Amino acid sequence: MRILVLGGDGYLGWPTALHLSRCGHDVAVADNFARRQYDYELGVESLVPIETLQTRVAAWREVTGASIEVFIGDLTDADFTYDMLRTFRPHAVVHFAEQRAAPYSMIDRKHAVYTQVNNVVGTLNLLYAIAEVDRDIHLVKLGTMGEYGTPNIDIEEGWLDLEYKGRKDRVLYPKRPGSFYHLSKVHDSHNIEFTCRIWGLRATDLNQGVVYGQQTPETVLDDRLATRFDYDAVFGTVLNRFVIQAVLGHPLTVYGRGGQRRGIIDIRDTVRCIELACENPAERGEFRVFNQMTEAMSVQEIAETVVRCFPGDARIEHLDNPRVEHEDHYYNVTHTRLLELGLTPHLLSDTLITSLFDVTKRHAHRVRPEALTPKVDWRRHASPVQET
C-alpha cells in the first residue's frame, strides 16, 4: 500500500512513517517544518536531539534498506497539495500536519487565527485535492478527544443515536471543545464528514487521547531516528512533563485540583492504530470515528503514578489552573473499534515510566527549567503587548 504521512517530521508523524515502512508499505512524508519553527519562537527545543528530516530518511535507508520519499511544502498551498497527491498517488493519506497545542492557540489573537487558518484551510485543501485527484484515497485524520469536552453523558465513537419527540436519528456527537486548537479540530471533523456525505470520500477520524512515551521499536534502531520529546508547558504532554520534573527534582505541577480526566495512549499504540486504520479502510462515502485511547486517568492520578515509580524523592504541587475547564467531571468513553481491529494495548506501567526516566536522565542537561512553568492564561484574550 502507498501511504503518504503529512506532518511526517513531527513527534507522531515520524515514528508512524517508520512503523508503516517497516510493515512493508511504500511510504512518503510531507512537512513544512513549522513545528521546528515553533521551538525557535518559544526558545525551547526537544529534550532528545532530533536530526534533520533528510538525515533521518538517509539513516532509515542505511539501517533498513527501505526508502521514504520526501515532499517539502505547506497544505495551505493548494498547488503543492494537488501536485503531491498527483505525484505520489497514495492509497491512504495520514494527516498529522496541523498545529497541535492548545496552549499555543490560546497565546493571543495572532496564534488563534494562525491555528485555525493552518489547520482548517490546510485540511480543506487536502479534501479538495483528494476529491479531484482520486476519490478512492482513504483519509486517516488525527483528531483529538478534546473535541468532545467533558459531557455529563457517555462519549460514543463519533456518532450519537438519539430520540427526540418520538423521532429517532443518528447525529455527530455534540462537541464542546476547550481551546481554539480543539475548535479547529471540530471544524475539520465537520468538513470531512460533509465531504464524505456529499462527494463520497472515505475517511477515518481518530480522536486521540494524550500520547506519552518517546520510543518505538523503529526509533530505537539508531539515535538518528529518534523522535522529539517535548517537555515545555506549551507543547509538552502531561506525563512526559511530569517525568522531567521528577528527574530534575522539581515538583510535579498539577493544574487546579487535578480531577480532570484524560484519555491516554502509548506512542507505540498510536503507530499501531494508524496501521490498523490504513489497512482496514472506510467505505466510499463513510465517515467513521475511532476514539484512539487505551485508558483514562485523572491528571492527579498520572502525577501520583510518576511519584510512585520514581526511584527518588518526588512531590506534587498544585498550581492555579491557567485553563478554563471542569476539574471534577464524569468521563466514560467508548473505545472499542480499534480493539476490534486487533489493537493490543500497552497500558501505563512502571516499565514504561522507567524507560522515560532513563531517556530524561540522559538528556537532562538540555532542559530549560523556566519553560516548564505555564505562561498562557485562557482568560486573557490578548497578548501582554497590545496591538495598535
Describe what this molecule looks like in 3D.
The strands form four sheets. The protein has a seven-stranded parallel beta sheet with strand order 3-2-1-4-5-8-12, with helices on both faces. The protein has a three-stranded mixed beta sheet with strand order 9-11-13. A two-stranded antiparallel ribbon has the order 6-7. The chain is built from twelve helices and 14 strands. The chain has 388 residues and is an alpha/beta fold. The model has no long low-confidence stretch (mean pLDDT 96).
Please give the structural blueprint:
Layout lengths: L1 E5 L6 H10 L3 E6 L2 H9 L10 H12 L3 E5 L5 H11 L3 E4 L6 H4 L3 H25 L4 E7 L14 E6 L2 E6 L7 H20 L2 E7 L1 E3 L25 H11 L3 E4 L5 E6 H13 L7 E6 L2 E4 H11 L6 E4 L17 H5 L8 H14 L25
Parallel strand pairs: 1-2, 1-4, 2-3, 4-5, 5-8, 8-12, 9-11, 10-14
Antiparallel strand pairs: 6-7, 11-13
Helix content: 25-40%
Q: Give the distance, in angstroms, between the N- and C-terminal Cα atoms.
A: 52 Å
Portion of residues in beta strands equals 15-25%
Number of helices: 12
Largest sheet: 7 strands, parallel
Order of strands across the widest beta sheet? 3-2-1-4-5-8-12
Listing every helix as H and every strand as E from the N terminus to the C terminus, the arrangement reads: EHEHHEHEHHEEEHEEHEEHEEHEHH
The unreliable regions are none
